[in-house]
Amino acid sequence: MRTENAASAADARFSPTPFDLDELSEAFDVFEATVAGIAAQARAQPSEAPAAWARFADLFTSDADYIEHALGTMHGRDEIRPWIVKTMTRFPGNHMVAFPNLWKVFDAPTGRVIFEVDNPMCDPGDGSVITATNISIITYAGDGLWRCEEDIYNPMEFGSAAMLWCDKARELGTLDDDAATWASTFGRAFRG
């Protein structure tokens, strides 16, 4: 049974929009470039990572929904901002170096873009590329802003990738305190 809030969020995600493919594509190009810039700044200046990731919320309308299946739904920028900062400034988020899209589909009549995101982690010290992917669906609101994002992924795949990274870094002597803490508290759940 859907609650009223769930029903209204679903209705907002699937209602038709007046945007054409060119506008949707251009807005998505800005979205991708902004996320890439935030990630690059966070990597280059770790002390500035919270401020960099806080800008991510500005890509959304003030009343947007961010649906994260494992962690819940954030309603509006005021919930999206602290969540994304917390997520991306601690392990494993702070060890993900980029978020390239592997493919994307534009659905102009609904204002939606569906895409697969790669989430490679930083080199643990031997050139290894450890990653996991997710599917994201974003719904355009106009004026360069998005009214909904939904991330769909397998938490076990992400946890296993993070634990593999920790094991490799430990073996190479590059395991930092943040990752070691994660491995000792949550990592056991992802051992094969």
Provide the structure class: alpha+beta
Helical proportion, percent range: 40-55%
Task: List low-pLDDT spans.
Answer: none
**Order of H and E elements:** HHHEEHEEEEHH
H/I helix tally: 6
Instruction: State the major sheet.
Output: 6 strands, mixed
Spatial shape: elongated
Major beta sheet, strand line-up? 2-1-6-5-4-3
C-alpha termini separation: 36 Å
Which radius of gyration do the C-alpha atoms yield? 17 Å
Kindly estimate the percentage of residues that lie in beta strands according to DSSP. 15-25%
Output mean pLDDT. Answer: 92
Number of separate strands:
6
Describe this protein's structure.
The chain is an alpha+beta fold and 192 residues long. It is 42% helix and 23% strand. The longest helix is centred in the N-terminal third of the chain and has 24 residues. The chain is elongated and about 55 Å long. Strand 3 and strand 4 form a beta hairpin. Strands 2-1-6-5-4-3 form a six-stranded mixed beta sheet, sandwiched between helices. The chain has six helices and six strands.
Topology:
Blueprint: H1 4-14, H2 21-44, H3 49-54, E1 60-68, E2 72-75, H4 77-88, E3 101-107, E4 112-118, E5 133-142, E6 145-152, H5 155-172, H6 177-185
Parallel strand pairs: 1-6
Antiparallel strand pairs: 1-2, 3-4, 4-5, 5-6
Any descriptors?
single chain; 192 residues; alpha+beta; six-stranded mixed sheet; 42% helix
Quick take:
By secondary structure, this protein is an alpha+beta fold. It has helices at 4-14, 21-44, 49-54, 77-88, 155-172, 177-185, and strands spanning 60-68, 72-75, 101-107, 112-118, 133-142, 145-152.
